[in-house]
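One example copied in:
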Amino acid sequence: MKKTLKGTLRDYGRRPKKSLGQVFLIERSVQENILALADLGADDTVVEIGPGTGALTRDILPRVKRLIALEIDADLASYLRTSMETTSRLHLVCADALRFDYERASSSLGTRLKVVGNLPYVISAPLLVTFLEQRKAFSRLVLMLQKEVAQRLTAPPGTKQYGTLSVLCRSCFHVDLELKVSRNCFHPVPKVDSAVLRFVPRESSLFPPEAERAFRELVRAAFSKRRKTLLNSLRSSLGKRLPGERIRELLEDCGIDPRRRAETLSAEEYASLAQHLQTNHPLW
């Protein structure tokens, strides 16, 4: 008889570590939805972020060619090694997901990776940046995030939630909020609700590789003073390298009113600005 998720937690016998932001998913229906969104196949290589006590790990393993489970907690990693079946398809790595080289793993295995994980709230933003930087390694990501972060990533232009991370993620991925998850689906119960997002890489980039640095700096500069007009925000951040009048020309050449604010521009408009900047006013 298959153990319940709560039963597995009882077998583990240790308290979740607050220092690592540990909460364990105990709702089976949410787990099943995550598996469906990952669309797992027999030839897939999956990276699971934070397998915990292995509730999701045990369901992923028989469906895929290879499963790399990244667990930073040495106690949990030890528990998994003794409680999971021994198979060459499971690669349990006691490591920090922020420092794992996803592109190297993808290259050495000759396949793009699918990532599944319940991201600890304390590292969700930096880990998303890591995924953006190594995006060529992935075919799909299905991630559980704090509801507030999920709303920021999927917010449309012109809203308060729309910001730097929204634009950067959408420049590389199609991002969809697929499932809202109550805090009561976890043990211990966190203070906030969560949501499951699906990230699918764009087939073609919004900008050429040589304009990527310009794109990232433009987006960060624009949102650094989001209460100001776009012209004034860019002046504040880029003024030492690009005179105000050239910034105005850049915006007008791309058909963007300098009086607009950062949160009103789409990822495509920022990409257009970055390409024009890289071609006509190179800063790097």
Notes: The domain at 209-280 is CATH 1.10.8.100 (Helicase, Ruva Protein; domain 3). The chain has two domains: 5-201, 209-280.
